[in-house]
TrEMBL record:
It catalyses: ATP + protein L-histidine = ADP + protein N-phospho-L-histidine. InterPro entries: HATPase_C_sf, Sensor_HK_TwoCompSys, Sig_transdc_His_kin_sub3_dim/P. Pfam families: HisKA_3. Gene3D superfamilies: 1.20.5.1930, Histidine kinase-like ATPase, C-terminal domain (3.30.565.10). Keywords: Kinase, Membrane, Transferase, Transmembrane, Transmembrane helix, Two-component regulatory system. Its EC number is 2.7.13.3. It is an enzyme of class 2 (transferase). This is histidine kinase.
Length: 366
């Protein structure tokens, strides 16, 4: 039951809202009057399948996006239906907003080729079809503008998302800087106080030699406690100076953006609350992994999922680049990342294919 609920939460419902206009676009074929209508309705079914696959199967989009364009383009060229092609005009263009511009240009070229081809065929078959009096010219405005509007809107949304995410990370770093200031104060005050206690107890042991049976055990305990507290303060300070996930993500996403790679995350807010030691271990591995993506993967998008269960902390990093590029040996390569996690009783898993590389980093809860 929980699995089905989680599945429902991951569905991109907003992508399916546009299908509410589908009955209007196919009204001309219902009721069925000839085998042509059956053919077009069959193509509508194929379009629906492709539309859903584009939404639900991102790694198939290299095939499903062009296929959806071709199916709807047939309506524009052979059925004088310029409304079906609007669906990929919005859906595909919006999804390409976070991809390299050349991919959108390629899609737009095919889109307008179908649209213009359909207009030419309509004009040759019905010379007066584009007269202002029948509204067909105005009916072309939305199909013509759809890809441009969708792509621009998607680009703006992604930029705003990146900006909001950067602001959240900066806020977290500011809060962290405040904790570091507190850590310095603790070290300067409590650390010195405990050091003083240690010195005084050692001196007292030397002075009170006349009654060692009464004083020495107490002084030993005070000395031991003070040393433990001093060590605790130092450990707290060291932990606060360790690199956090927020700091790594802020720096690395900027580096990736500089080379045209989009970074998206899920569960990041919750991950910033993970224990410092867990964040520090993951941070070191993420630096190496994201650096390798930037240098070797030739990717366009990186997705990072932060997962926490009752027993583990986990990070999944997936890129859409060339598989196998993260297989680099050495202290800072695969072996180094695996060693860091295994030192904390964690696990490191990597899978690679032509669709990209995925890392799964796991640390147990104590």
């Amino acid at each position: 039951m929980t699995h089905h609920k989680n599945k429902l939460k991951t569905i991109e419902w907003t992508s399916y809202v546009w299908l509410a206009y589908l009955p209007y676009t196919i009204a001309a074929y219902i009721p069925v009057k000839s085998w042509h209508d059956w053919l077009w309705l069959l193509l509508v079914g194929g379009f629906l399948v492709l539309y859903i696959l584009v939404v639900e199967k991102p790694h198939w989009r290299a095939v499903t996006m062009p296929a959806e364009l071709v199916v709807t383009g047939l309506f524009a060229v052979f059925a004088a239906n310029n409304f079906m092609i609007i669906f990929p005009g919005w859906q595909v263009s919006f999804l390409l907003g976070r991809r390299p511009k050349r991919e959108f240009y390629g899609f737009a070229l095919g889109y307008y080729a179908f649209l213009i081809g359909g207009c030419i065929r309509d004009y040759l078959q019905y010379p007066g079809v584009f007269g202002w009096h029948n509204g067909d010219v105005m009916g072309l405005v939305f199909p013509l503008l759809s890809p441009i509007l969708a792509y621009t809107f998607s680009w703006s949304v992604e930029r705003q998302r990146q900006l909001n995410q950067t602001n959240r990370r900066l806020k977290t770093i500011v809060e962290r800087n405040e904790r570091e200031r507190i850590a310095r104060d603790l070290h300067d005050t409590l650390g010195q106080s405990f050091s003083m206690i240690t010195l005084k107890t050692e001196l007292a042991k030397k002075l009170l030699v006349k009654a060692p049976e009464k004083v020495a055990p107490e002084l030993d305990e005070i000395e031991q406690t003070s040393r433990q507290n001093l060590q605790l303060v130092r450990e707290i300070v060291n932990n606060l100076h360790e690199q956090s996930l927020t700091e790594v993500l802020l720096a690395q996403t900027r580096n990736l953006a500089a080379v045209g790679v989009w970074t998206t995350t899920t569960g990041e807010t919750q991950a910033t609350k993970w224990p410092t030691t867990v964040q520090s271990c993951f941070a070191a591995v993420l630096v190496e992994a994201m650096t390798n993506v930037m240098r070797h993967a030739h990717a366009h998008e990186v997705r990072i999922d932060f997962v926490e269960t009752a027993k583990i902390y986990q990070i999944k990093l997936k890129d859409d680049g060339k598989g196998g590029t993260l297989i680099r040996q050495g202290a800072n390569g695969i072996a180094g990342m695996r060693t860091r996690l295994q030192a904390k009783q964690g696990t490191f898993a990597i899978t690679s294919s032509r669709r990209g590389t995925q890392l799964i980093l796991t640390l147990p809860k104590e």
